[in-house]
Amino acid sequence: MANLKDLAIQLFDIQAVKFGTFTLKSGISSPVYFDLRVIVSYPKIMRSVSEFMWKAVKDAECEYASICGVPYTALPIATCMSADHDIPMLIRRKEAKGYGTKKIIEGHFSAGDKCLIAEDVVTSGSSVLETVKSLQDEGLVVTDAVVLLDREQGGSKRLAQNNIRLHSICSISKLMLILLEAGKVDQKMVNQVQKFITENNTFNPEAKPAEEVKKVLTYVERAAQCTHPLSKRLFSIMQEKRTNLALSADVNTAAELIQMADSIGPYICVLKTHIDIIEDFSADLIQKLSSLAAKHNFIIFEDRKFADIGNTVKQQYGGGMYRISEWADIINAHAVPGPGIIQGLKEVGATKNRACLMLAQMSSKGTLAKDTYTAESVKMAEGNKDFVIGFICTEKLSSDPAMLHMTPGVQLSAGVDGLGQQYLTPQEVITNRESDVIIVGRGITQSANPMQAAKEYQEAGFLAYQALFN
Ligand code: 5BU
User: Fold this and answer.
1) Do 8 and 40 belong to one domain?
2) Does 150 participate in catalysis according to the annotation?
3) Which residue from 363, 392, 410 has its CB within 8 A of the most atoms of ligand 1, so it is best to mutate?
4) Most buried one in 188, 209, 264, 316, CB count within 10 A?
5) Active-site residue (options: 6, 35, 262, 308)
6) Does residue 329 belong to any structural domain of this protein?
7) Is the CB–ligand 1 distance for residue 441 below 6 Å?
8) Where is the Orotidine 5'-phosphate decarboxylase domain (predicted)?
9) Residue 195 shares a structural domain with residue 270
10) Do 238 and 140 belong together in one domain?
11) Do 322 and 232 share a structural domain?
């Protein structure tokens, strides 16, 4: 392996490092430019670069299960590190494929795995952070990034701000000294580059960590991003009726359910049922419920919580006395049986344009749906976006704007019931947990004036949504 001095000179000789006047992506004019893309034409230099980078992370004793190069220049570098040192690699697509699995990260991994980032040049750190974000969205953890050249313009601090350590092989100052000593540049150029670096520091100590600066999208913008007709329709209803309230109509007779649906209908976007607690279920109830859904423009969600193997849930969903798939726009499913449950439900529901929510978290005390289970449920949902349109959860779990987050266990004041239910307020759910829909049951159904209560929940939920834009 070449020493650093040799490598720096080789990079200069192959014009991976150039001096002159260059306009950078940001529009700023720079006296120095790195174009590491050319190293693919020089396999020995490529190997030398990847060896330096591997050694740096080894010396720093970084822990990681896989490596991911920032596309595109660092891809071959990461590939060499991976192949030479038997480190599994992940590839981040710049755009998700429009067909097949629509994956943005290719390769095998489990949620919670640590992934090392490899990059050719770091300026502000934003390209590294983009890749980090995609990995984090899939449940991966990033603590370290390794880079060949650090332009010393604030990238390492920006990454530190996001809890990522940057390991660089060569800083721009060190590179300039080597090239000066080797007679490749003169002192004037060294000074010019130094001046440029000092004057073009991108680091803002006040900047919020990257994950906090994401833009909040309106329901209209999110509807536009949905490919499933039901999520598109739901976001449109939320905007049109100015409500993110779902009523959990947990009553025991058909008459009560119909009465609730008709009186509360104007205030809700979703009516959630537990059809198996109705004592006098009949086809007539379904017919009335469906016409009320049309009259008040809400979506029907049967909270059936399917939890069996694909073949069984298919029959439970499509058959039996309730024939759920014939009238419920949305159903939900536990992730515990594995992806077969989604396949089974999809076989019945997809042709009817029905959709499913994954139970990724629950509101009840002591729930086992947490940590890795939640992360795996999210992955399962995201791998089946043609049928799964979101989650039952207690916080935002996916950055995909098309994915809906619906949260049960909501009342106007936080608290518990006697059987493990835990309540959050509408504001906590929408503002802090960044969920989309509040699901309210007894807060409305057992209030002295359910209609008035529904109005209050509608207002509280929608005000919290509007406040996201202030
Ligand atoms: P409540 O009366 O607002 O506590 O009713 C909550 C409803 O949401 C009720 O129908 C539950 O079956 C449902 N629910 C829940 O409370 N918590 C969960 O994690 C899930 C569903 Br999933």
Assistant:
1) yes
2) no
3) 363
4) 264
5) 308
6) yes
7) yes
8) 244-457
9) no
10) no
11) yes
DSSP H/E element including 438: strand 437-440
Ligand 1, atom 14, lies closest to the CA of 408
Domain assignment present for 69:
yes
Whether the upstream peptide bond of residue 72 has omega within 30° of 0, thus cis, is yes
Task: Dump the DSSP string for 233-292.
Answer: HHHHHHHHTT--EEEE---SSHHHHHHHHHHHGGG-SEEEE-GGG-TT--HHHHHHHHHH
Structure tokens at 393: 């959860």
Does the annotation place 329 within a ligand binding site?
no
Nearest C-alpha to atom 19 of ligand 1 is from which residue? 362
pTM score of the predicted model: 0.60
Nearest residue to 76 (alpha-carbon basis) of 63, 64, 67, 86: 67
pLDDT digits (tens, 9 = 90+) for 202-230: 787 776 665 545 578 999 999 999 999 99
Residue 190 structural domain = 4-208
Same domain as 286, residue 176: no
What pLDDT does residue 212 have? Answer: 47
Place of tokens 């990260």: 105
- How is residue 91 written in tokens? 């590839």
**b/e per residue 255-287 (b: at least 16 CB within 10 A):** eebbebbeebbbbbbbbbbbbeebeebeeebbe
| Shared-domain flag, residues 438 and 461 | yes
Options 102, 232, 305, 396, the catalytic residue = 305
Structure confidence by residue, pLDDT tens digits, 50-97: 999 999 999 999 999 999 999 999 999 999 999 999 999 999 987 655
The residue whose C-alpha atom lies closest to atom 1 belonging to ligand 1 is 441
Of all protein residues, the one whose alpha carbon is nearest to atom 5 of ligand 1 is 441
State the average pLDDT over residues 399-413: 96
Among the atoms of ligand 1, which is closest to the Cα of residue 411? 3
CA 409 to ligand 1 centroid distance, Å: 6
298 & 392 share domain: yes
Alpha-carbon span 14 to 39, nearest angstrom: 8
Give the CATH number for residue 189. Answer: 3.40.50.2020
Residue 316 lies in a domain: yes
